[in-house]
Amino acid sequence: MANHPTTVGAQEHTYDAIVIGSGISGGWAAKELCEAGLRTLVLERGRDVKHLADYPTALKTLWDFPHRGKLPQTVVSENPIAKKCYAFDATTEHFFVKDKEHPYVQEKPYDWIRGYQVGGKSLIWARQTQRWSKFDFEGAVRDGIADWPIGYDDLAPWYSHVEKFAGISGNYDGLETLPDGEFLPAWEMNDVEKHAQGKIMTAFAGRHVIQGRCAHLTVPKPEHYAAGRGQCQARNLCYRGCPFGAYFSSNSSTLPAAARTGKLTLRPHSVVESILHDEATGKARGVRVVDAQTKQATEFFARVIFVNAASLNTNLILLNSKSKRFPAGLGNDSGLLGKYVAFHNYRGSISASMDGFADSYYSGRRPTQLMMPNFRNVRKQEAALDFQRGYMVFFGASRSGWQQGNGAKGVGAEFKARITRPGPWGISMMMQGETVPRKENHVRLSAEAKDAWGVPQLVTAIGYHDNDEKVLKDFHARGEEMLVAAGAKNIRKNDSKQNPGLDIHEMGGVRMGKDPQASLLNRWNQLHACANVFVTDGASMASTGTQNPSLTFMALAARAAHYAVAELKKGNL
Amino acid sequence: MRAAQEGAMNRREAIRHSARWAGVAALWASLPARTWAALALPAGWSEDEEQLLTLIGDTIIPATAESPGAGAVGIGRFMIVQATACFPAGAAEVLRRGLKEIQAVSATQFGQGFAEMSVAQREQVLTDYEARVAPTKGSALGSGSNVNPFRLMKELTLLGYFTSKPGATQALRYLPVPGGYKGSVKLGPGERSWAL
Question: For chain A, which domains are there?
Answer without folding.
Answer: 1-72+113-170+252-343+435-444+503-573 (3.50.50.60)
